[in-house]
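Reply to thread "Modeling small-molecule complexes from scratch"

Following up on the discussion above, here's a worked example others can learn from. I took a protein sequence and the SMILES for PBG and predicted the complex. Inputs first:
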Amino acid sequence: MTIRIGTRASKLALTQTQQTADRLAAVGGFPVELVHIKTEGDVKTGSLSQMGGTGVFVAALRDALLAETCDVAVHSLKDLPTGAAVGLSIAATPKRVDVRDVLCARDGLTLAELPGGAKVGTGSPRRAAQLRAARPDIEVLDIRGNVDTRLGRVPGLPGNATDEVVPGKSCDLDAVVLAAAGLERMDRLDTVSEFFETDVMLPAPGQGALAIECRTEDAPHVEGPNGVLAQALAALNDDDTRLAVTAERAVLARLEAGCAAPVGAYAFRKGSMLHLEAVVCAVDGTKTVREKKATDGLTEVGATLLGIEVAELLLAAGAAEIADLAAS
Ligand SMILES: NCc1[nH]cc(CCC(=O)O)c1CC(=O)O
């Protein structure tokens, strides 16, 4: 029995799927193969929001699972909509890597060292808002493209393909903001000039974590017999990661936030407590509401309730008035 793992064709997706496939094969003792699934988001160009947001990347993989074109799909958890997919389960969330956002600037500059008027690229309203809050005097530009394309917008970064300055294309910005996790997986952490601590920039809910999805019948069950795939998936799960991302995603769900809403959230377990902090910002950076809370309820339900509670604190503090939460 060969387990087929569906993947998008992007370098980041291929890298993280191959790494997961290798671990699954090692713990499961069965052969695995990668199946390339073309998604609407890979084929079309232009604004993601016009295609229905990052959900388009996920939908094709889910269709392939349900059609039994593949048995397992690996998603970046932060790209996964909060709504459940009928017939499918998140069978494992492996231990998450660095959750932080990073600055990749020319000449190794930090955010504080960038000159006034510096051009900083990001496609994320959450990052744009927090950048503007920290440095109202810089210019934040909306950029698109994969990780290599984005890094290529900053002159002199290690590993860039060209030094040619082409406006809108290459070497035309002072810095870009990306997730440490993606750079780590693609072995491009040497481009980072600053790691943002969470008091400056709260990451996207689920950032740095993967979700391994399968048909519900193949997922690990609490009771009853588990097949070889379910057992291998259970072995890849990290309980603390699952708790943290459950709390973070409950914030999004309770806020009914779209995938382009300027919402950051970060949860972590420390000892017997699960801590959660979340932020909603005005995209122009002028207003921010931030709340945090902890629970000793270290269960799926406890984590969900913590997320709901923090979301309600944010709403009570005016979150819905300062930002378009439905933005997608
Ligand atoms: N939205 C694109 C995306 N989806 C997942 C990652 C990598 C980080 C992660 O796995 O959380 C990235 C790139 C980025 O945000 O820099």
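What I'd highlight from this example: The chain is about 30% helix and 20% strand. The first strand starts at residue 3 and ends at 7. Questions welcome below.
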